[in-house]
From TrEMBL:
Keyword S-adenosyl-L-methionine recorded: no
MF term (GO), any: DNA binding
A GO biological-process term: DNA-templated transcription initiation
InterPro entries cross-referenced by the UniProt entry: RNA_pol_sigma-24-rel (IPR014289), RNA_pol_sigma-70-like (IPR039425), RNA_pol_sigma-70_dom (IPR014284), RNA_pol_sigma70_r2 (IPR007627), RNA_pol_sigma70_r4_t2 (IPR013249), RNA_pol_sigma_r2 (IPR013325), RNA_pol_sigma_r3/r4-like (IPR013324), WH-like_DNA-bd_sf (IPR036388)
Species in which this protein is naturally found: Denitromonas iodatirespirans
Keywords, in A-Z order: DNA-binding, Sigma factor, Transcription, Transcription regulation
Protein name, UniProt field: Sigma-70 family RNA polymerase sigma factor
Domain RNA polymerase sigma-70 region: 17-82
Pfam families, A to Z: Sigma70_r2, Sigma70_r4_2
Length: 201
């Protein structure tokens, strides 16, 4: 069954304004700069309104608008990466590494005390909106450049080659950063969500 033109979602100022909060949250987490994030969101909203007639309705308005925002954020990251050296990523990684060294034996397996806890049914947790609030808080606790690499991979869905090219880092460095980021998020979520206690963040 096809959707008629009258039933297709429309790009209206009201529809876009309803997305602003989610857009700002996404851009701020990725860029770590509230002013730049606000500029990205505003530019995206202006672009979306200007190109409203190009929206074919094959996806939701939110999906279409976030695709525009994603491209704007990637451009901003590429521009910013010209002033961030690869050494900054390595330095962050080294400081984060020390926090994880004690978790593993020499053979890189978990020590008994550091073994991950039983997270239960992850599907149940993912359904709860508060989980994402805790996840966002954990993400903001990661070192800035570490979080940026993680979000480029998992949120912006760039492949490792694109990340390395954009940030001028090696493939091995990229993989190490992603590993550290996931470990950091795991520890934070275990402490603040999966422990069964009230979230601390």
């Amino acid at each position: 069954m096809t959707t008629s033109s009258t039933d297709a979602p429309k790009v209206t100022p009201e529809a876009l304004e309803a997305l602003r909060a989610d857009m700002l949250r996404f851009a701020t987490l990725q860029l770590r700069d509230s002013h730049l994030a606000e500029d990205m969101v505003q530019d995206t909203l202006i672009t979306a309104l200007a190109k409203a007639e190009q929206f074919a309705g094959r996806a939701s308005v939110k999906t279409w608008v976030f695709a525009i925002l994603r491209n704007n954020v990637i451009d901003a990251i590429k521009l910013r990466s010209r002033t961030v050296s690869a050494g900054d990523y390595a330095a962050e990684g080294e400081s984060l590494d020390s926090a994880f060294d004690h978790l593993f034996k020499a053979n890189e397996h978990w020590t008994p005390a550091a073994r991950p806890t039983d997270w239960g049914d992850p599907e149940d947790a993912l359904r709860e909106q508060q989980f994402w609030a805790v996840f966002d808080a954990c993400l903001t606790r990661l070192p800035e450049n570490t979080a940026r690499v993680f979000m480029m991979r998992e949120f912006l869905e760039l492949d490792s080659h694109e990340i390395c090219t954009t940030l001028s880092i090696s493939m091995s460095n990229c993989h190490v950063i992603l590993h550290r980021a996931r470990n950091g998020l795991r520890r934070c979520l275990e402490a603040n969500w999966f422990s069964g206690e009230a979230p601390a963040c």
